[in-house]
Each structure stands twice: as C-alpha cells, then as structure tokens.
C-alpha cells in the first residue's frame, strides 16, 4: 500500500478511498438473477488448471476481487487463463509452482488451494501465510494433516508452507475432526492424479460448492464418489481432460437478498436458486414470519408483518452457514423481541456488530461456554430488536460483515457511509447493482483531493 500511495503522491490529484453511500428507507422490490458462487468459482478455477487441455468455465464472477487475485496467482504458478466476459479458458500444462508473491497470496485464503494443484502436477510450491478475512484464528492445520496423510513432503514454519516435490501414497486415509471446506478441496486436488492410487477422506465437507467442484472434476475424468454421507473415495487417474462447466449460483448472495428484503419490508423474486442449498437458513427465516416460497424459477421473498426473533447456532453444512450468520443478525435488528446467535465455527466473527451499534442496533457480545472449531473461545451475540435504525459512518470489517452493515443501512433512516469497501468487493462483484436494481438508493463514491 505504501508503494501505491508513493506513486500517487507524484500526481496532482489523489483519488481517496472509495466508499458506499446508502440512503435508507426504501423497500426492495423486483426480480433478480444470481451470479456464480464465489465459493465455488475459486476452487473451480484451480480445478480447471489441473488439465493440459482447455477447461472452459461459465458464470464466473470475474469482477470479484478474490477471483482476480487467484487468477493472478495461478498465472504466476504457470497456468494459462483467458478471461472472456464471465467465462474463463484455463489450462495448466505450463505449471511450474515456485514461490508465490507474498503480497498477493497474503490477501486471499484460497491461495492455499495452489498447494493441492502443485501436488497434482508434482511441483514444489512455497506459499506465504495465506490471508482473507480477519475473523478469528483461521488455521491451516487440517490442510497440512491431509498432505502428510497422503505422503507429501510438507514443511511448515512461521514464514509459510513449503510443499516439496513428492509422490502420493498408494493408499491414504484422511480423518478430519471437522468437515473443512478448504482442506477437503485441497485433498481432492492432490489425490485425483495417480495410477490407481486411493484416497479416502472421512468427515469430508459436503457443501453445495464442494459438490459443484467434484462434478467439474468428474466431468474432467476424475474418479470421485461418496461412499457414505461424509466419506469421499478418490481413485487416481493418469490425467484429466478438458470440459465445459457452469459455476453454480451464489447461495450467500441469495441469503443477502433475503435478509435485505426482510429488513426493508420488501417483495423480491430471486431467480436460478434452489431452496435445497439454503434449507437450514430458509427453515429459520420462515419461523421469523418472513414469507419465502419456492417457485419454478427460484424463490419469492415477501415481508408481511414485523419479524419475530429466532435463535441461531452456526454449524457445518447442512447446518446454518457461518458466512450467513451476519445476514441473520441484520434481519433480527428490527425484530419484535430478543434473539441469540451462537457462533461455533470462528472466533472474532462478531466485529461487524460494533458497526451495527453505530446505527442504533442493540447487540451485546458475551462469552460462550464453549470453544469454536478452531479451538478459540466462542461467543454469543444477544440481539434485542429496536424500532428503527439510523444512518451512520461505518466500516466493512470483512466480506459478510460488510454486507450486513449494507443490509442494515438499506432499512436505516438517513444516510450511511460505508468505508473499507474492498472487503465487500472481495465477495460481491457489484453490490451497487445488486441492491440498486431492486430500488435501493445506493452508490459507490470515489472522491478526489
């Protein structure tokens, strides 16, 4: 960042940090279709680089910051990627591995997945400690466990992770104590190539996004199958072939729209989304009194009365998604009573609540008598519904926390200014159009000094 400001200092005009401005009080109404899912697109782009043939991906949210950063890292590692609007043409035949750029890798947690790609290609790779959202202690120990269980030579120190050139075991068993999303994907990438090698992953993540990536790899010739509800079996094949694949719609953006519709007393039709991928969340939100109906094209969401408080405990899929809990918090801000939100996955996930408090939200964060999945002390948010919110100057603390304050601002009286919007744009390609197309008074402002 210093280099950027240093270069700008030579110019007569400096562009200040952009921000989002929202004038609240408008009920969202209309129809909207969903873009491709970020959490499927990122691992799918890496998967598409596991073939010497061209793999074409459609419905890729290429405008998202994390997608652009991942593409930059993959090209640095030797992959070839062409961008054609919302489609990518990927080829991994030039994979060379090496040491990844610390500044880029440090901004995105999905940089971890390049370890799996390098294991696939038999290349060494040094990964500086990965970044992402600052929401607690996000460990990579399960990734290391998986690589070592498969026989790969992995060295871990305070600088980062080093994968040395090594071969996969003939047969491997990986046992996760928690169904880790990234750990499961990395183990799959490292295990799909081989001459009849066998990898079994117990307690594998079964998120819809994981299923989408598995479907892509199987279309490329991989042999991946579920042997029961939470165990995956991977039989290594000599090579993967080219194919064409459409990235699934983004269920977290769908959840964002549902939350925004509920808090603004709106009526919105969300196209190309299945209620099945949000089963736990829809069950919860219907209990609040929000009317959510499944249709042939997707979901219809309609506010009919003041929402009732409903408690939530986050858990692995098919439970209530930790990425969606900030959106539930936003939905509860104007509810008729008190609700609790127990975060069991990541500590430090309630930082956004202090921003909501600036808008008049009544939220208390208290210690929980439990530890999160990452081993840190858990917390509970106690949300007491208020009659109204007021606009304020707030900060986007992370992707989904930033989305939560934006959702709250839509219902607040007056003007809200949201800074640090880089975080929001890591997961939402164009949140201005997303809400603006449904009638919201929202704009992105870039000031010059």
UniProtKB/TrEMBL annotation:
Pathway(s) annotated for this protein in UniProt: Cell wall biogenesis; peptidoglycan biosynthesis
Catalytic activity: phosphoenolpyruvate + UDP-N-acetyl-alpha-D-glucosamine = UDP-N-acetyl-3-O-(1-carboxyvinyl)-alpha-D-glucosamine + phosphate
Pfam families reported for this sequence: EPSP_synthase (PF00275)
Coiled coil location: none
Gene Ontology biological process terms in this record: cell division; cell wall organization; peptidoglycan biosynthetic process; regulation of cell shape
InterPro entries in the cross-refs: Enolpyruvate_Tfrase_dom, Enolpyruvate_Tfrase_sf, MurA_subfamily, RNA3'P_cycl/enolpyr_Trfase_a/b
GO terms under cellular component: cytoplasm
A GO MF term: UDP-N-acetylglucosamine 1-carboxyvinyltransferase activity
Chief location of this protein within or outside the cell: cytoplasm
UniProt keyword terms in alphabetical order: Cell cycle, Cell division, Cell shape, Cell wall biogenesis/degradation, Cytoplasm, Peptidoglycan synthesis, Transferase
Subcellular location: Cytoplasm
Start and end residues of each Enolpyruvate transferase domain: 23-433
EC id: 2.5.1.7
Similarity comment: family membership: Belongs to the EPSP synthase family. MurA subfamily.
NCBIfam families: PRK09369.1
PANTHER family: UDP-N-ACETYLGLUCOSAMINE 1-CARBOXYVINYLTRANSFERASE
The protein, known as: UDP-N-acetylglucosamine 1-carboxyvinyltransferase
Organism: Paenibacillus lycopersici
Taxonomic classification: Bacteria, Bacillati, Bacillota, Bacilli, Bacillales
